[in-house]
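Sanity check

After download, print the first record. It should look like this:
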Amino acid sequence: MNRASIDVENVTVKYHGKVALHQASVKLAPGSISGLVGMNGSGKSTLFKAIMGFIKPQSGRVLINGLPVRQAQKRHQIAYVPQAEEVDWQFPVNVADVVMMGRHGYLNWLRIPTDQDRAVVAASLERVQMGEFRERQIGELSGGQKKRTFLARALAQNSGILLLDEPFAGVDVRTEKAMIDLLLELRQQGYTILISTHDLSSIATFCDQVVLVNKTILAYGDTADVFTEENLTRTFGGVLPHQIKK
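Expected structure tokens:
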């Protein structure tokens, strides 16, 4: 697998004339896990959407492996694990159907899965320990099982970059640990992983880099250098988050 990188260059995004993100710039190292940290309304979700190509910046650009986002998507170079709130859990599909969606870009013109597609789906489900739930309707899953299903979908895309939006929200400690262990394995394989999270307590345990957002990129770099009380206080509007208070 080709090693991947994310380059955000002076990106500004506005909604209805109001600036949501101003001249944000960050470059994420290949084969790394980065934590994206910011309070609600900080522009964190906007940055995520710009990287994924869901919104178009008013200025600046995003490059994936040196390519514009649309081109990178066509080459299956980026995958996304959404927040639970973005999913219609009553939609009549089972777990295997959801993961097969990750193969959409690989299907032939008839949109009929091949044996290889089915094998990739099965392997992705086993990797997140969801193989035995493949026929279960997604609305019947627990919070942790839902997260693992969409992580399997992302793995089925066989992309070099993974973006995960609040992957640990609503999961138990055991599931969080299992997901972190898998993300560490993927990093060793050369994946570039960006995680948006409110769970500051675990950032330092597995993230190589941290990106701090408050309407722009306040700081980014190695976790040991950036994840400091001073920087976090700036990020959260002058109030130190309770997760890291001494």
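If your output differs, re-run the checksum step. Summary of this record's structure: The domain at 1-76+206-245 is CATH 3.40.50.300 (Rossmann fold).
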